[in-house]
Specification:
The chain has about 950 residues and is an alpha+beta fold. The protein folds into 4 domains: about 230 residues, Beta Polymerase, domain 2 (2-Layer Sandwich), CATH 3.30.460; about 210 residues, Four Helix Bundle (Hemerythrin (Met), subunit A), CATH 1.20.120.330; about 160 residues; about 190 residues, 2-Layer Sandwich (Alpha-Beta Plaits), CATH 3.30.70.260. Helix content is about 55%, strand content about 10%. A 4-stranded mixed sheet has the order 3-2-1-4, sandwiched between helices. β9 and β10 form a beta hairpin. The longest helix is centred in the middle third of the chain and has 31 residues. The N terminus and C terminus are likely disordered.
């Protein structure tokens, strides 16, 4: 607004012209420059004039004027917000323009409100010096950035202590702002209190750093700012930097430690907006800069780095504004259900091998990586300029210079001069190897130079020494995970191995995978190393036992590195990855035999988990077919270890004892098949050995029982039972079954909550009968429990034990134990008609899965088993799916012998071994088609039944 307009407004309202002029000076010129045509957002003159009319119409009565004034402010806020949103969604304004415009809109409303309250409502009488008042914006709002649904933080600044007049003004203003629907954080302080609290509280110190004057006594504001810079900031920049970087590290720990989690927090997460804010806070506190462009003058960033900063900030603001508008709230977590719509709104298009949403998320992760690069650059310059002796090392240390041009000091490797990499580009790889080999950190200055010299890495791809160094890092006796991550974040990894570069920041749009492909790969290499060192002996005993027996350690590590390298290529990533391995193996210096082994492992890295979790390991044909694929004991060992590391690297709660048990059973039985039993002791088969070991373990655990009861407990279990559970589970189940038998209970339901894994185990012990499994699955739906996996056991005495792993529909451990026990009991006693109950109740728990597309698929295989027909179901998870599928099987007249229930995020893969009513495999083509149609009807994407209500 120009001066002439402001003066006319002041005259219209009979308010002080100087005050009106000062009212707009809280907005910096560059702030207004980012807001095209601000008068279309809010017409300050019209609003102020109308406020004066309202006051006059009310006869100077504040109570009468308040409703009309509030309505005016609400209309101004609503109309202005809608105009800002229209510009964003229709005119494609960017996020930076939105947050500036939103701050401007609130500025004008706060200013007009203060004028009304101070000049009219409490305008009578002469005010003393002690009753002066200033309003300032602090925090993000003070920075001039306000997302559509973010809080506004205000500081009411007083000369001394608050008076009754101050309290009345502040209370009136706050109630009006709250009634407008604004979320307001506020404080009331004098300059003395600002100084004292800023010294004691880093949050206050940071908020005041971005203090911006909005309204009131400018001299009082200037005095507070002077006191802040002289009494708080002066001489404390080093401590502030330490504090902010420590807060950043703690925040990263709290939000997942990695910038590559698939549902990131774009504000607080690693590589998010708060990291950019932290850099700017440090620069402002240390050098007094007021704009990002000033970082060039201070030597903190190059002009290109400032452009990266600006692009990253604008992208993140744009994403955040879309999220606020989409959800109607201050949402900062980029959840799966938001990602597809954001990708559409931001104009991303599908490419071969990549969905639209995956391209959008890859862009996000690359921006997050840019933020990390900026952090390293700023830290390097700050240390160089300030020579601090805290975070980066204390005291003096000997300085060692290597022949290659590296200097080692204070446990860090730096470069002697900026031309080290130009003289010999292999020094880029040598830098990472030296730091890794000697356990040093890499100086931020050296990493900054590496980033600037990335163009030289391409020429190293065929350099034998560079490839040797890379392989030595990968297969080093020290865990290579952190060094590989540094190479990835610096950009060296992608330039050196272009195929890996294609999966950098690549996400797989599902709820199963927790990390991007590159982050998952690097984590699995670290896990592989920890298995080798025995750190997972308790969780992965077989893999730990097998690692020392692996003949080609180098091949195993390279296969781990390459197992997902072809994801997103548009073809089967195992096949494409095997082909890439044949090219990279010789380049890395592997022998022909090692290269062939790597290629085979990459090609087959999924088959062991597929067979272990989706096939009946008690069926001899399952083992025979798998052994025919593996053929070699060495490959079997390598595949087992690689599979364990791969599964554990998917996410923190994916690995469990049941999976370890199944993989061990598959390994031992396959080894027995391959070697003809020669690998087992005294000619006993591996399966028999495992069964005997499990029985012996149970005998030891039941030492307090009479011998005849122990024998009975052991005799009733078939072979599959002994490898389906751990020794601890066998003991627990035996004690539960004994108690139920002695009490004459027809039905026992026992639940156990594991808050660490967010899972709940539900064990149902009862008499076996047709449809039992289906009925229990239906009861789970009635109790609002989501089934993750299930293991069914029938004992020789006709009793059944079905063990389910469940969660609540919120993805947390299911804790309504009484409810689930009651539901199972009522269903099995025939007190509930499941179909009727389901049709009449709301359908919950769909939101997070319904955004995913999982084509329904039914695979019927008569070759996988000699005695049973194998049916594999693939579809999108939803409440009641397992019940619908098992009900369909029952209605089709099929008997379920064993079931293998697996949930991978939003995708379910359920495998059933079945026979027909005559105890035979399903052979007739007509019957097979009937089964396929019936099951497809059961798993089709969910449509609410008549009478059902979505919730």
């Amino acid at each position: 607004m120009d001066t002439k307009t402001m003066q006319s407004v002041a005259m219209a309202c009979d308010w002080d012209a100087d005050q009106a002029r000062l009212g707009c000076s809280g907005i910096a010129p560059e702030f207004l420059a980012a807001i095209p045509d601000p008068e279309q957002i809010i017409r300050c003159d019209a609003m102020v004039a109308r406020l004066e009319e309202i006051w006059q119409e009310a006869g100077g009565d504040a109570a009468k004027a308040r409703p009309a004034a509030l309505a005016l402010f609400k209309a101004a806020l609503k109309d202005g917000s809608e105009e800002i949103r229209r510009r964003f969604e229709d005119d494609k304004a960017n996020g930076t323009q939105v947050v500036r415009a939103q701050a401007y809109l609130v500025d004008r409303i706060v200013h007009a409100l203060m004028e009304l309250v101070v000049k009219r409502i409490y305008g009578e009488g002469v005010r003393t010096t002690g009753e002066a008042l200033t309003v300032a914006a602090v925090g993000g709002y003070g920075r001039g950035e306000l997302a559509p649904h973010s809080d506004i933080d205000l500081l009411f600044l007083l000369p001394y202590k608050a008076t009754a007049y101050h309290e009345k003004v502040v209370e009136t203003v706050l109630y009006m702002l709250w009634d407008l629907g604004l979320k307001v954080g506020h404080s009331t302080r004098s300059p003395d209190e600002c100084v004292r609290q800023a010294k004691d509280d880093s949050t206050v110190k940071t908020a005041l750093l971005e203090c911006r004057w909005l309204w009131g006594d400018k001299a009082l504001y200037d005095e507070a700012r002077r006191r802040y810079w002289e009494d708080v900031v002066s001489g404390t920049s080093a401590a502030f930097i330490e504090q902010k970087l420590a807060e950043r590290d703690e925040r990263h720990q709290r939000t997942g430690c990695s910038r590559y989690v698939l549902e990131p927090n774009i504000k607080e997460g690693k590589g998010g907006l708060r990291d950019l804010h932290t850099l700017f806070w440090i620069a402002k506190y240390t050098y007094g800069v007021t704009a990002v462009e000033d970082l060039v003058k201070g030597g903190l960033l190059t002009p290109e780095a400032v452009r990266v900063f600006t692009r990253a900030q604008n992208f993140l603001w744009t994403v955040r504004c879309h999220m606020h508008y989409l959800t109607g709230r201050a949402e900062d977590r980029l959840t799966f259900d938001l990602q597809p719509e954001l990708a559409r709104r931001m104009g991303y298009k599908k490419r071969t091998g990549q969905k639209t949403v995956e391209r959008f998320m890859k862009h996000y992760f690359l921006v997050a990586k840019d933020v990390g690069d900026l952090t390293r650059m700023v830290c390097a310059v700050l240390e160089e300029q300030n020579k601090r002796r805290t975070r980066f090392g204390i005291g003096f240390a000997r300085r060692k210079v290597t022949p290659e041009g590296f200097v080692i000091e204070k446990n860090r490797v730096d470069i002697v001069s900026d031309d080290v990499f130009a003289k010999d580009p292999v020094n880029i790889l040598r830098l990472f190897f030296l730091a890794h080999d000697q356990g040093h950190n890499i100086h931020p200055h050296a990493l900054k130079r590496v980033t600037e010299e990335l163009g030289r890495v391409k020429g190293l791809r065929r350099d034998a020494e560079a490839n040797r160094l890379f392989l030595d890092i990968l297969t080093h006796r020290k865990n290579p995970e952190s060094t590989l991550r540094k190479m990835n974040e610096s950009g060296v990894f992608a330039r050196f191995v272009p195929d890996f570069g294609r999966v950098v920041a690549q996400m797989q749009y599902d709820m199963y995978h927790v990390y991007t492909t590159d982050e998952h790969t690097i984590r699995t290499v670290g896990i592989l190393h920890d298995i080798e060192l025995g750190r997972y002996a308790a969780d992965m005993p077989t893999a730990t036992e097998l690692f020392p027996l692996v003949q080609s350690r180098r091949a195993l590590y390279v296969a781990m590195l390459l197992h997902d390298i072809a994801k997103g290529s548009g073809e089967d990533h195992s096949v494409a990855g095997a082909r890439i391995a044949l090219t990279l193996g010789p380049r890395f210096g592997l022998s022909e035999e090692e290269t062939e082994t790597v290629s085979w492992l990459v090609r087959n890295h999924l088959i062991m988990s597929m067979v272990a979790f989706k096939r009946d390991l008690d069926d001899p044909k399952t083992i025979a077919d798998f052994a025919a694929q593996v053929q070699s004991p060495e490959r079997l060992r390598q595949l087992h270890v690689l599979t364990c590391a791969d599964i554990r690297g998917v996410g923190p709660d994916i690995w469990n004892a049941w999976k370890a048990q199944l993989l061990r059973a598959l390994y031992s039985r396959t080894l027995d098949r391959i070697t003809g039993g020669l690998a087992s002791s005294a000619g006993v088969s591996a399966a028999a050995e495992q069964e005997a070991a499990a029985k012996d373990a149970l005998r030891a655990r039941l030492a307090d029982w009479p011998a005849e009861l122990v024998d009975r407990a052991i005799e009733r279990g078939y072979r599959a039972y002994w490898y389906s559970f751990t020794a601890e589970e066998h003991e627990r189940q035996a004690r539960i079954m004994r108690a139920a038998d002695e009490a004459g209970e027809d039905l026992t339901v026992v639940c156990r909550v594991n808050p660490d894994t967010a899972h709940t185990e539900v064990m149902v012990y009862t008499t076996d009968h047709p449809g039992l499994f289906s009925k229990i699955a239906g009861a789970m739906v009635l109790a609002s429990a989501s089934i993750l996996d299930a293991r069914i056991t029938t004992f020789s005495d006709g009793m059944a034990m079905d063990v389910f792993t469940v969660q609540g529909l919120d993805g947390e451990a299911y804790t309504e134990i009484d409810r689930i026990e009651r539901a199972i009991s009522r269903v099995l006693k025939g007190e509930v008609r499941i179909h009727k109950e389901l049709a009449e109740r709301p359908i919950r728990g769909l939101k997070r899965t319904q955004v995913f597309t999982v084509p329904p698929r039914v695979i019927i295989d008569n070759t996988a088993s000699a005695a049973y027909t194998l049916i594999e179901i693939n579809g999108r998870d939803r409440p009641g799916l397992l019940y619908d599928v098992t009900s369909a099987l029952r209605d089709l007249g099929l008997q379920i012998n064993s079931a293998h229930i697996s949930t991978y995020g939003e995708r379910v893969v359920d495998v059933f071994y079945v026979k027909d009513v005559f105890g035979m495999k399903i052979a007739h083509e007509g019957k097979l088609q009937q089964v396929r149609r019936g099951l497809l009807d059961a798993i089709e994407p969910f449509a609410p039944a008549a009478g059902a209500k979505s919730a």
